[in-house]
Design a protein that fits this description.
alpha/beta; globular
Length: 249
């Protein structure tokens, strides 16, 4: 017996930052399957440079720290119904976020870039004809709620993302824009690939997670679609934890 929920975003225009990989790719697939016109961003020059088929999307190159490129992206849309601020990252194999300059760079990538995009897209989102209004959905993290000393800049940025979500939601509600966030638990992605199979890194997370498994991008995408849909039309300012129960133990 299947109880899978379906959504209809036919005619909607959706921007998913970081939609070329991982969680962002699953979100983009979900919206496209629901009939949306999906634009994704990635850091490479063109979609053809990725090892997956991205031909079903409109692709734009974007570095979140490039303010001019962000503004150009905003201005390029004649309409927009949903912005998913998914793009972000940390610095594996080199820079350490405990260093002040690296801390600042991480916050710029994981907080400032998303805020700039949201503000730049605000007028288009306010004009959305979606039932329930236009939506911004930010990507938070368990790092917003628990100490993560290995990536202090990333964690601080995600904590600020939760507060940014509340403030934008309160400020923009009168203009028909809902703003929510999702905080994933331990999810299989490029960012967590180095942890997979390394007992010292993954076991503490799995042991603490009541569902005792890694999450997948496909566990996150339907929650994003729900928050953007009319089924969530009375929900704003919330951060939904999708973590297999990690946060309750």
């Amino acid at each position: 017996m299947s109880n899978e929920t379906s959504f209809d975003f036919s005619g909607s225009r959706v921007l998913v930052t970081g939609g070329s990989n991982g969680i962002g790719a699953a979100i983009a697939r979900g919206f496209a399957a629901a009939g949306a016109d999906v634009v994704i961003t990635g850091t490479r020059v063109s979609a053809s440079e990725y090892d997956r088929d991205l031909s079903g999307y409109e692709y734009r190159q974007l570095q979140l720290t490039d303010k001019e490129a962000s503004d150009v992206l905003d201005d390029s849309f004649d309409r927009l119904d949903v912005l998913v601020n998914n793009a972000g990252g940390n610095f594996p194999g080199g820079k350490h976020e405990a260093v002040p300059d690296v801390f600042e760079e991480s916050v710029a990538i994981n907080l400032f870039g998303g805020y700039r995009l949201a503000v730049g897209c605000k007028d288009k989102l306010a004009a959305s004809a979606l039932e329930g209004g236009g939506s911004v959905i930010n990507m938070a993290s368990m790092g917003a709620f628990f100490a993560v000393p290995i990536v202090p800049g990333y964690a601080a940025a995600k904590a600020a993302t939760v507060q940014m979500t509340k403030n934008l939601a309160a400020t923009w509600a009168g203009e028909g824009i809902r703003v929510n966030a999702v905080a994933p638990g331990l999810i299989e992605s490029n960012m967590t690939a180095l942890m997979k199979g390394v007992d010292a890194l993954e076991k503490p997370f799995i042991d603490r997670t009541p569902m005792a498994r890694w999450g997948t991008p496909e566990d996150i995408a339907p929650v994003i679609l729900f928050l953007a849909s009319s089924a969530a039309r009375f929900i704003t300012g919330q951060t939904v934890l999708v973590d297999g129960g990690f946060s309750i133990t």
